[in-house]
């Protein structure tokens, strides 16, 4: 049968419908995942079209998936992080949703405190066990949408759940029916989709979900979960690892609208950001992230990274306040006690810091030479240098000017007497066998001594 696609506006053949393949033995894709070897990336040279949705957004799992890998946040910390996300996401809600646990009194207190703030974005959603009691709990809290786990690879269906594919599908569909009965919109987390039989289980299952959704007149959100970080963003990669293939297939063969399609990835193979961006490019409106990438094992997609990806792809921040990213990082360090790796992009203490003298020389002439963008304006974090044995005269001059706010005729250059004397002192420190970096207090004390107190106090 030919149908006019409302996505491509072309006539497309729509005669074949994928049916559940209820196999006796699990398909573990051993040709990709032998377990004793690094997972293989196979290509089948099949391309699918780019299909960036009109609207794209970010959703957050910091208070659910992220919180599972750190010390549990207090109610106050959850409320503060929620307010940070609202400010960062801006008036148009680019950070659209965030998900909470609901099981403990602390979880429910945090939800109620956040609800009381009256903020439109991010919308509060939950993640629950798929049973009537939990659905009622969500409904009683006045929450519209909740996530439920629907593991879709044979690793989970056969090995963890000890079920057949048919039994798993029936169990999942029954849970969705319970959500509909409670008047709650389900968000189905298709766990381990990058090891699942896409046409033998995923597509037939999602087809049934879409039918149930249409009958119930309640939307179902599909979250494609790259639980182990196996997803690959490259064109022409074979399923089940192809991110383009998964997103295109869920739209094309299961009729999942872009606004009901979301990607959730992990960073086991350093591809979380690339995979999330690819999901946007091929048709998913939502990408699920966590603040600072905190999450299971190697972490989730860093939310702040996707803020930058959004701006790069759209050419605009659309109201997002990126300076909040620096505030969030400071809050994690000072209030939560989380140690951010220093080289972490945008939030690590060294992300826009240089130790190399030749780089500092460039910064002294024009910071654009060695800085990724105007970090002072965009992240409220001016480019800086650390002084050590490789800093050189330029690095010392840059450090003094920046830290003492010296500009114009007040600024020192690398030929000034103070800079030369500071370099002699630093060289002497390392010639005597010093191995550690110079602390700010040491540098300030020496500058005070050499300048006879003529520079302003910090």
In short:
This protein has 458 residues and is α/β, with parallel strands linked by helices. It is built from 15 helices and twelve strands.
Describe what you observe in this structure:
This protein has 458 residues and is an alpha/beta fold. It is built from 15 helices and twelve strands. The strands form three sheets. Strands 3-4-5-6-7-8-9-10 form an eight-stranded parallel barrel, surrounded by six helices. Helix 8 (272-282) links the parallel strand 9 (261-265) and strand 10. Helix 3 packs parallel to helix 5, helix 11 packs across helix 13 and helix 13 packs across helix 14 (417-431). The mean pLDDT is 92.
Task: Summarize the helices and strands and which ones pair or pack.
Elements lengths: L1 E3 L6 E3 L43 E4 L14 H15 L5 E6 L4 H12 L6 E5 L4 H9 L4 E5 L4 H7 L4 H18 L2 E6 L7 H19 L4 E6 L16 H10 L8 E5 L6 H11 L3 E4 L13 H12 L8 H14 L16 E2 L2 H9 L9 H5 L4 E2 L6 H12 L13 H15 L8 H11 L8
Parallel strand pairs: 3-4, 3-10, 4-5, 5-6, 6-7, 7-8, 8-9, 9-10, 11-12
Antiparallel strand pairs: 1-2
List keywords for this structure.
458 residues; 11% strand; two-stranded antiparallel sheet
Please tally the β strands and state the result. 12
Can you give the mean pLDDT? 92
Spatially, the strands of the biggest sheet line up as 3-4-5-6-7-8-9-10
The description of the largest β-sheet is:
8 strands, parallel, barrel
Distance linking N and C termini: 75 Å
Shape: elongated
Stretches with pLDDT under 50, minimum 5 residues: none
Helices, by number, come to: 15
How are helices and strands ordered from N to C?
A: EEEHEHEHEHHEHEHEHEHHEHHEHHH
Note the beta-strand portion: 5-15%
Radius of gyration: 26 Å
Structural class: alpha/beta
The helicity comes to: 25-40%
């Amino acid at each position: 049968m030919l149908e006019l696609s409302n996505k491509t506006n072309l006539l497309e053949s729509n005669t074949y419908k994928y049916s559940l393949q209820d196999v006796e033995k699990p398909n573990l894709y051993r040709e990709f995942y032998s377990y004793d070897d690094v997972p293989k990336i196979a290509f089948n040279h099949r391309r699918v079209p780019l299909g960036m949705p009109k609207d794209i957004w970010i959703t957050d799992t910091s208070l659910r998936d992220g919180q599972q890998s750190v010390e549990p946040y207090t109610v106050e910390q959850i409320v503060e992080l929620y307010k940070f996300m609202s400010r960062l996401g801006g008036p148009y809600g680019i950070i659209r949703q965030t998900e909470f646990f609901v099981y403990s009194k602390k979880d429910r207190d945090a939800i109620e405190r956040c609800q009381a703030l009256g903020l439109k974005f991010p919308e509060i959603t939950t993640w629950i066990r798929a049973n009537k009691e939990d659905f009622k709990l969500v409904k009683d809290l006045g929450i519209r949408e909740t996530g439920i786990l629907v593991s879709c690879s044979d690793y989970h269906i056969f090995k963890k759940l000890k079920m057949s594919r048919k039994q798993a599908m029936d169990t999942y569909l029954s849970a969705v029916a319970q959500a509909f009965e409670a008047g709650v919109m389900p968000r189905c987390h298709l766990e381990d989709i990058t090891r699942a039989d896409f046409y033998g289980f995923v597509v037939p299952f999602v087809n049934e979900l879409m039918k149930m959704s249409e009958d119930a007149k309640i939307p179902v959100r599909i979250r494609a979960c790259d639980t182990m970080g196996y997803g690959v963003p490259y064109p022409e990669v074979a399923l089940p690892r192809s991110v383009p293939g998964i997103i295109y297939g869920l739209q094309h063969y299961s009729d999942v609208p872009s606004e009901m399609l979301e990607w959730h990835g992990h960073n086991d193979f350093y591809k979380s950001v690339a995979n999330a961006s690819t999901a946007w490019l091929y048709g998913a409106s939502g990408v699920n992230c966590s603040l600072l990438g905190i999450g299971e094992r190697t972490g989730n997609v860093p939310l702040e990274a996707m803020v930058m990806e959004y701006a790069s792809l759209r050419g605009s921040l659309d109201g997002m306040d990126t300076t909040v990213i620096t505030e969030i990082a400071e809050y994690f360090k000072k209030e939560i006690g989380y140690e951010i790796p220093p080289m972490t992009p945008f939030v690590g203490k060294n992300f826009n810091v240089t130790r190399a003298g030749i780089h500092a020389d460039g910064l002294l002439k024009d910071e654009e030479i060695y800085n990724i963008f105007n970090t002072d304006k965009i992240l409220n974090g001016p480019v800086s240098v650390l002084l050590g044995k490789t800093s050189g005269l330029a690095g010392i001059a840059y450090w003094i000017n920046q830290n003492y706010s010296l500009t114009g005729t007040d600024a020192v250059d690398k030929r000034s007497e103070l800079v030369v004397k500071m370099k002699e002192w630093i060289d002497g420190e390392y010639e005597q066998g010093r191995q550690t970096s110079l602390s700010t207090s040491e540098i300030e004390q020496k500058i005070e001594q050499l300048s006879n107190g003529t520079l302003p106090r910090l």
